[in-house]
Hints:
- The protein is an alpha/beta fold.
- It has two domains: about 1-75 and about 165-185 and about 195-255, Rossmann fold (3-Layer(aba) Sandwich), CATH 3.40.50.300; about 85-165, no CATH class.
- Helix content is about 40%, strand content about 25%.
- Helix 6 (about 185-195) links the parallel strand 7 (about 170-175) and strand 8 (about 200-205).
- Helix 3 (about 95-105) crosses helix 4, helix 3 runs parallel beside helix 5 (about 150-165) and helix 5 (about 150-165) packs parallel to helix 6 (about 185-195).
Amino acid sequence: MLETRDLTIRFGGHVAVNAVSCSFAPGTLTAIVGPNGAGKTTYFNLISGQLKASAGTVSLDGRSLTGMAPSARTRAGLGRAFQLTNLFPHLTVLENVRLAVQATRDGTHRRGLKLWSIWSDHRDLVARADEILTQVALKAREHDAVASLPHGDQRKLEVALLIALEPKVFMFDEPTAGMNAAEAPVILDLIRQLKQDRSKTILLVEHKMDVVRELADRIIVLHNGTLVADGEPAEVIASPVVQEAYLGVSTKEAA
Ligand SMILES: Nc1ncnc2c1ncn2[C@@H]1O[C@H](COP(=O)(O)OP(=O)(O)OP(=O)(O)O)[C@@H](O)[C@H]1O
């Protein structure tokens, strides 16, 4: 269970996230919605550790993550899909995914300097990387340099890297932003697949209400940094606070 308690951040006099307390259970996809500037990305940044909270706590399975660096939170099981800034752009797609698989297994699978075990580890890593590339429909691109990938394939690779890390929690911030009509369904399919694994917790920041309606088991609404609604999608979407605070500003997307 991922939990935030009174999570708060102030920028100068502005409270961007205001005492948000919420729990996210395994087997649940929660969509976080709200108008532009509501604090959704900032809330994500506080959970993943990109921003330091002014007050409040974050914990995963009872273990406090508050104060931990983002990398330590990743090791603890928080996985966030990021733009490809932390990739090796001149290595191939396969090599990048293999390195992510290796990073996850290092420490648990280290078996000393035995040539056979190094070789068989390498074979296992490549096999797992291969499996993930098939899952995200990137197998055809495995030998391409990451820097040469079109935008949609880069976003798929982000998901591939996330899967390689085997997190307990998957965090997606507008995963289909900037994608064309052919690319977006691939990412949404991947999220649907991840949902099948009932041990995973999925958080999704998403503006497109049709996507939210289809994927979310639960919706929470942020408005001016405050949690203003939380519940079943149909109920939350129909609530006056959402109609007014959110759908009112993006009726086109909600239609
Ligand atoms: N580093 C920062 N310094 C100062 N203010 C910030 C910073 N990051 C975010 N903010 C402010 O915090 C508020 C919340 O921003 P945030 O990006 O989290 O909103 P959002 O709900 O994700 O919006 P959008 O839907 O447009 O992505 C905004 O008023 C924003 O200007």
